[in-house]
Specification:
By secondary structure, the protein is an alpha/beta fold. Helices cover 41% and strands 11% of the residues. It has a domain of 116 residues. It has a 4-stranded parallel beta sheet with strand order 3-4-5-6. Strands 1-2 form a two-stranded parallel sheet. Helix 4 runs parallel beside helix 5. The chain is globular, with a radius of gyration of 19 Å.
Length: 213
């Protein structure tokens, strides 16, 4: 998006080497930090580090309850929802023309965007939850000893409802595979918005460069 002049702001929890928290992460968890490197101008990156820092270090300090699935103050879900709310709060003065968000982290920001008349693009990286849950339930029945590894089966009704609300608020949906796109047929009433497929393994270089190579 930045390469094509489409990125006004980039919100995340931590970024490699950006700000005090990014430098702290690089110093104490180099491997984790390397996965959070973004090739963007620092002025576009907006950090919201608090809960994610706690999530990174709580288990090492014997505070696993803080990262318990969904309910923990620094669980993945709570970190992501906190980031979502931060984006929602930033939108009124952001001067942007649209919002691009990912599954499980879009409800608050899409709600705020709708009030401002901004279009919302939704990235669905894996199968829509209703189909995905059916498949996982079948696998759990076939291999009971694996059931504990299928964390999505523990998702609360509130989390699942939130996923549907995000989809309902989206103006366009981006999927990474044909399977993911087709899984949206399980959405109640069907999907009445544009669905785009950006396949896995897309060229890392712009297509015009690929043609000239």
């Amino acid at each position: 998006m930045h390469r094509h002049g489409l990125l006004g702001q980039f919100h995340t929890t931590l970024a490699d080497g950006v700000g005090v928290t990014g430098k702290l992460l690089a110093a104490v968890a180099a491997e984790t930090s390397a996965r959070r490197h973004f090739a963007l101008p620092p002025e576009l990156i907006h950090l919201h580090p608090g809960r994610e820092l706690v999530r990174q270090f709580a288990p090492k300090l014997g505070l696993a309850q803080l990262v318990r699935h969904e309910s923990g103050w620094a669980s993945v879900d709570q970190v992501y929802q906190s980031l979502d709310r931060a984006v929602a709060n930033a939108l009124p003065g952001a001067g942007v023309s649209g919002v691009y968000q990912y599954e499980d982290g879009a409800f608050a920001s899409f709600t705020a965007a709708a009030r401002l008349g901004l279009p919302c693009a939704y990235d669905l990286p894996i199968a829509y939850w209703r189909l995905g849950r059916t498949i996982q339930q079948e696998e759990a029945a076939l291999q009971p000893e694996w059931a504990m590894t299928l964390e999505a089966l523990c998702d609360s009704p509130a989390k699942l409802e939130r996923k549907d609300q995000e989809l309902a608020l989206a103006d366009a949906v981006f999927c990474a595979s044909t399977f993911t796109a087709r899984s949206l047929a399980a959405f109640p009433g069907g999907i009445d918005k544009s669905v785009y497929q950006v396949a896995y393994g897309s060229p890392s270089r712009p297509l015009d460069q690929e043609r000239r190579a």
